[in-house]
Amino acid sequence: MSDLQIEVKNISFAYEKGREVLSGVSFTVAKGESVGLIGANGAGKSTLLKLLVGLNPGFSGEACLFGLPLEKQNLAEIRSRTGYVFQDSDSQLFLNTVYEDVAFAPRNYKMTEAETKERVLHALELTGIPHLSSRQIYKLSGGEKKLVSIATVLSMTPELILFDEPSIALDPKNRRNLIRILNSMDQTKVIASHDLDLILDTCGRTILLSDQTVVCDGRTEEILTDRGLLEAHGLELPLGLQRTAHRPE
Amino acid sequence: MHMADALVTPAVAGAMYACSAVAAAYSIRQVRLEEDAKKVPVMGVMGAFVFAAQMINFTIPGTGSSGHLCGGMMLSAVLGPYAGFLTLIGVLLVQCLLFADGGLLALGCNIWNMAFYGCMIGALLIWKPMMKKGITKGRIAAASILGCVLTLQLGAFSVVLETTASHITELPFAAFAAVMQPIHLLIGLVEGLITAAVLIFVHEARPELLFCSRKEDRTAGRFSFGTTLKFLGAAALVTGGLLSLAASSNPDGLEWSVEKIAGTAEPGGGAQNAVQEKIALLPDYAFRGSESAFGTVVSGIAGVLAVAGLCAGICYFFKFLQKHRWAEVKENGADRKGSS
Amino acid sequence: MGQTGKAVHEVHRLEQLAARDQWVNRIHPLVKFFLTVGYLAVTVSFPAYDLAGTAGMAVYPLALLILADLSFRDTGKRLRLVLPFVLLIGLGNLFFDRNLVQIGGFTIRAGVVSMAVLFVKGTLCVLASYLLIATTSMEKLCYAFGILHFPKAVITQFLLTWRYLTLLLEEVNRMTDAYALRAPGQKGIRMKAWGSLAGQLLLRSMDRADGVYESMLLRGYRGDYAYIRETAPLRGRDAAWLLFWGALFVLFRRFPVLYLAGAGIGGLLS
Question: What is the pTM of this model?
Answer without folding.
Answer: 0.79
